Fold each of these.
Amino acid sequence: MERTGGPDVLAWGELPDPSPDDGEVLVRLGAAGVNFIDTYHREGLYPRELPFVVGVEGAGTVESVGPGVEGVRPGDLVAWADGASGSYAEFVRVPADRAVPVPAGVRPPVAAAALLQGMTAHFLSHDTYRLGRGTRCLVHAAAGGVGLLLVQMAKAAGAEVFATAGSPEKGELARGAGADHVILYRDEDFAAAVERIAGPRPLDVVYDGVGRATFEGGLGLLRPRGTMVTFGNASGPVDPVSPLTLMNSGSLFLTRPTLRHYVATTAELRQRAGAVLGAVAAGELDVRIGATLPLVEARHAHELLEGRGTTGKVLLLP
């Protein structure tokens, strides 16, 4: 990318093969994950210095290691979702302390599909608002990459899950992941549907990765001292909220978390990644790969993601 904008600013090109610096490993890409954060970088919503190669998530085989690297060797299978950039490429330089080992039995595409969105679902359900038996949550875009994993984790914790989806097919995917109540938001108002099922303001927490289009409706569904977790901007960033609105709505909590603050240390990253990839390896967490495209079609991958034309995870393969 040499300028910010729509998918058309993504350009396919040749760059010199990189070499790992101190504390880095060079990874031959097996698969790159496509995420909404990539579109935020592309648009300039999250500014980065230009030019740059897009992509923050991937998995592959270590090609070589830089000076000072211990515990990672050429031939190791690793994944990353934080701390590395430039994942839409054949070779990626990854800080060794941000590379996580991939368990036996988990292929690189599955690892790339699971890591960023899996760790996001994990911190949302375990830390931002810890779900448990008897809690009620709403998961927006429940057939998306984060949504399907978050529904599974919420059900494993014992929560009652309300889920929104944009089509009957996506609704079935959410139901298959364990959602108790599936609402097709194009057919009915999701807030009215939730209250029809469970009564006025029944929710402990709303997990909203959609943003502007759903934020206000979700806020009105929270019980007093409930928690609004807005973690994405698929429909645009949320407008500013007055603290008095939160008070008048029942002393609500509002948070806008991001993954990097939940994997800030190497120990926390390895622990959270291990929990996600371990669950995948054990067959306890199902990862849906909705689309795989050649790396050269990154522009089309962004169009699919932003057009809500996918379910589960979108991957780019070299």
Amino acid sequence: MLEAGRVVRAVTPERPLIIYPRDSKFEASYEQPFIEMMSRFQMALRQPNTGLLVIGSGLNDRHITEPIKSAVRSNVSLKATFVSPHIDESTKPLIKGIEHLIKEGDTRLTLLAATFQDFVAALPDLVAITEEERHLLRLKKFDQ
């Protein structure tokens, strides 16, 4: 619940801050505080060089999938990866659309049939210094 501008946990809140599964979930996403969160989600998806990682979502919620679809259509620098154990068997319109784009050569998108544990195990350990870190080190020496 919201109390004095803060989120406070309560066993039986008067106005819960979670959208519980129900038919009117999409409509509820247009009420505060959800509309603010969705607005920020949409803004983030529009930013250049944005990465989106979706793991284990059933993609059953229009209030989530519609902004993702919009970003896939309009943000040419978006990189998005969708991970789910049965993604290769999915009949969801979003997944089918992404699958089509990948087949047409869209390298921004990745579909991965894997569990969370499999996905995490496949991630490389990033111990190497990044190009940005190298640049900052060069600048420090430059300024001395």
